[in-house]
Amino acid sequence: MSSSSAAPAAKPPIRDALVAAAFRLFLERGYEQTTVDDIVALAGVGRRSFFRYFPSKEDVVFPDHERCLADMTAFLAAGGAEHEPVRRVCDAARLVLRMYAENPAFSVQRYRLTRRVPGLRAYELSVVWRYERALAEYLRARFAGRPDGTLRADVIAAAVVAAHNNALRSWLRSEGKGDPGAAVDHALGYVQKTYGRPAQAPPAPAARAGRPDDVVVLVSRRDAPLWRVVQELETALGRA
Amino acid sequence: MSSSSAAPAAKPPIRDALVAAAFRLFLERGYEQTTVDDIVALAGVGRRSFFRYFPSKEDVVFPDHERCLADMTAFLAAGGAEHEPVRRVCDAARLVLRMYAENPAFSVQRYRLTRRVPGLRAYELSVVWRYERALAEYLRARFAGRPDGTLRADVIAAAVVAAHNNALRSWLRSEGKGDPGAAVDHALGYVQKTYGRPAQAPPAPAARAGRPDDVVVLVSRRDAPLWRVVQELETALGRA
């Protein structure tokens, strides 16, 4: 995401030092028992430096979400009409996963902290909400003028976030072991299969020119349940 | 929901008086500028009475969510294996709609207030999250042992909440005019169509005893796209 103008070229060392000091104290003393004064004392900087980087103590727990939200917005804005919309929001969600996967130990620590502190849980929900709105706004624009455009946009954005978080949280609960990418791909694949256009076009007739008259005859009772007929049909067509 | 033991037989008048006083002050002075002392003074009760009904000033803004959450949990717990799971969570979501629709003027006031006060927005997100978790936990239990059971449960719960809120918020933005029930039914219908089993069971063979040998013959090219074949099939079966 180096193309995003919102992303700094490198993280300032003071910012990193503040995050490291804060997390050390949160884990040692507890989040509520740690003050901003404690954090700046341990980091060896002044109180003003803290507030230059973080509006509040809560923000130091989620130091990369603002950058990630900016990256996501830029990524979505850079998409054109040639991008299948559901695939695009799934790819946008993968930016969040990448942020978590960049630093597994930190992500797992934060996950544990967030479980324990209700204020941080609320903060996290508001961050998740902002990601979801960014995806929904993109989809609303792509679906503009279509029937139920905003409804579909909101539902698909929520489904993408839920699928992403289902896989992400499994990984965090497993102490960040293994590659979360495959699990997130699988989860997002479920959403894409449900709502997206097929990734691959069906083979052109020319590709099957060898058997142009290949037909399937299916005989079914009229009162058979539709799902059962489709099942038979898939088997007959060799696509089950 | 009169069957729920969590629902009180009647709202205590003091509780209603506190809510009415709080909203009058929130609208006149602003939420942040109103203290609990202001609210109890206007309602003519003591400070302790306030905290007997509401843990904090934020809670007075959402006085019915705890009851509604309890109703929803009881409703889901009362469901049996005969209830189609996606339909059941959609019906559970309708309990929330009913709470909003019971008092349109109050719901619209609160909606406006929640837009303006970030703390209330965060509170609302945490309430929405609890509804979503209640639906997801129910679906996780119903899908237990199935492939991707927790993934499907989480995604469907999120889709139900997003669809419900899409319709609810349109109604709130329209100043609570008209019946929100039809819009919510339409939105939830979209989710049920996507994830649920068909609402109506196929007619029993006995009901069609007059034409027991009624069959359909469908002939299709093997390389026809599946969606096209299903479309033809639906037409042939008279279910399109």
Task: Give the key terms.
homodimer; disordered N terminus; 3 domains; 10 helices; mainly alpha
Whole-number count of domains of chain A: 3
As a whole number of angstroms, the C-alpha radius of gyration of chain A is 24 Å
- Largest chain-chain contact? A-B, 53 and 51 residues
Instruction: Tell me the name of the CATH class of the largest domain in chain A.
Output: Mainly Alpha
Q: Which second-level CATH architecture of the largest domain in chain A applies?
A: Orthogonal Bundle
CATH topology name of the largest domain in chain A, in short, is Tetracycline Repressor, domain 2
Shape of chain A: elongated
Low-confidence stretches of chain A: 1-5, 201-212
Tell me what portion of residues of chain A adopts beta-strand conformation. under 5%
User: Oligomeric status of the shown chains?
Assistant: homodimer
The percent of residues in helical segments of chain A reads 55-70%
**Main β sheet profile of chain A:** none
What is the helix tally of chain A?
10
Describe the overall structure.
Chains A, B: Residues 35-54 bind DNA. Chains A, B: It comes from Streptomyces canarius. The structure is a homodimer of 240-residue chains. Chain A has three domains: 1-60, Homeodomain-like (Arc Repressor Mutant, subunit A); 62-195, Tetracycline Repressor, domain 2 (Orthogonal Bundle); 212-237, no CATH class. Helices cover 64% and strands 3% of the residues of chain A. Chain A has helices at residues 13-29, 36-43, 47-53, 65-77, 85-102, 104-116, 118-142, 149-173, 180-195, 226-237; one strand at 215-221. The longest helix of chain A is centred in the middle third of the chain and has 25 residues, at 118-142. Chain A starts with 12 loop residues before the first helix and ends with a helix. Residues 1-5 and 201-212 of chain A have low confidence and may be disordered. Strand 1 of chain A pairs antiparallel with strand 1 of chain B.
